[in-house]
Design goal:
72% of the residues lie in helices and 0% in strands. Helix 2 runs antiparallel to helix 3 and helix 18 packs across helix 19. The N terminus is likely disordered.
């Protein structure tokens, strides 16, 4: 900034101090309007130092103006990508939603850290404003799903620019039970992982399934198969299997045929949250169809995992990694690992094989039913 600009800045600050010390409310609001006009007139060309100066000026003024003036300031600065960052943050954290909403819903100056902090501490109205942003990261939607009321969650799921983590999808599927509108919106998300989609379908009402079939006819076979087999066995329908799932199955098949598939590899898959690879690997080692393994893997209780692992001769450390992966992906309460360990140690291989034969019989009987 040159000396002329510095002098102008000093004069502006002097005028500001005079306004704050002796000016009326009307004069302070008029000063804010003039400063805002000045900033918007050259926002694209200002240097970081000049923006920092405006940040100081806005910050001083905001402490001495009423809510209506702050709300107007927020609405004018929210769309500006170079808006003073400290001012934007202060507006976002204002308790009054009239002030916070414009920047929470629009400002590119707010990073994920600020959005998450706001979502964790402010009102449902603040969360609703965040849910309308053009893009939302998985880290932000995690908090919206956890803290948001039904309207916030519905709005977040309806946002085409929102991303969701595995944990987020797990919480959404659990939350959608009994809520047809939410279940339908979740089922139409193109990025929903297959195991969450199948769990959603299995719990969905006839209304939800009809809506999903009508909205996306190519997936009608997926919906019908998942319902008919009752426990999310839709792998027999080629259109239901995603490209990612097919790649995972191909990788596991290659490892198995080369003699490189063992429980250490399964533990590695589980520890990195790779459900499809883990499922395919367990199916191969337990010598069961993929659909049978998937059915047992996605059950709410962990007995299915224990049965498959015992038949495959896995150690407890690998079983624990698989259970931890399930808990992480589902977003539900953690499994009691000590109780599972005791059950696993008591479980006989012959008993596990008997139970597994029963699951195979169910799988065979399902299409006929």
């Amino acid at each position: 900034m040159n000396s002329k600009s510095t002098n102008a800045s000093t004069e502006l600050l002097d005028e500001l101090q005079t306004t704050l010390a002796h000016g009326t409310v009307a004069r302070r609001v008029e000063t804010l309007r003039r400063v805002t006009d000045l900033f918007l007139g050259g926002a694209v060309d200002y240097s970081d130092e000049q923006i920092a100066l405006f940040d100081d000026v806005f910050h001083c003024l905001m402490r001495h103006i009423e809510a209506a003036a702050k709300a107007l300031l927020a609405s004018r600065l929210a769309p500006i990508g170079t808006a003073p960052p400290l001012t934007i943050r202060a507006l976002a954290f204002d308790d009054l939603i009239e002030v916070a909403a414009p920047v929470l819903s629009q400002s590119e100056r707010l990073d994920d850290e600020a959005l998450i902090e706001t979502a964790r501490s402010k009102s449902q109205a603040h969360l609703m404003a965040i849910s309308t942003r053009k893009t939302l990261s998985g880290a932000v939607t995690d908090v919206l799903i956890l803290r948001g009321d039904d309207d916030v969650v519905q709005n977040t799921v309806n946002n085409p620019g929102a991303e969701f983590t595995e944990r987020g999808f797990g919480r959404l599927v659990a939350r959608a039970e009994g809520d047809d509108n939410l279940a339908t919106c979740i089922g139409l998300r193109p990025s929903i992982p297959r195991h969450h989609y199948l769990k959603l379908i299995a719990k969905a009402s006839a209304t939800v399934r009809a809506r999903l079939e009508a909205a996306n006819p190519p997936l009608a076979g997926d919906v019908t198969a998942a319902v008919r087999e009752a426990t999310r066995r839709a792998r027999s329908a080629p259109s239901a299997v995603s490209r990612e799932t097919l790649i995972a199955q191909g990788l596991v098949k290659s490892l198995y045929e080369d003699g490189r598939l063992d429980e250490h590899q399964i533990a590695a898959f589980a520890e990195t949250g790779k459900f499809d690879e883990t499922n395919a690997a367990i199916a191969a080692l337990a010598n069961v169809p993929l659909a049978v393994a998937e059915t047992m893997m996605v059950e709410s209780r962990s007995e299915g995992v224990l049965i498959l692992a015992k038949v495959s001769g896995m150690s407890w450390s690998t079983v624990k990694a698989i259970i931890n992966m399930r808990d992480e992906l589902s977003g539900m309460d953690r499994t009691n690992l000590e109780a599972c360990r005791q059950t696993y140690e008591r479980l006989r291989t012959s008993t596990a094989q008997q139970v597994l034969r029963f699951h195979r019989m169910q799988q065979t009987a399902a299409p006929a039913a």
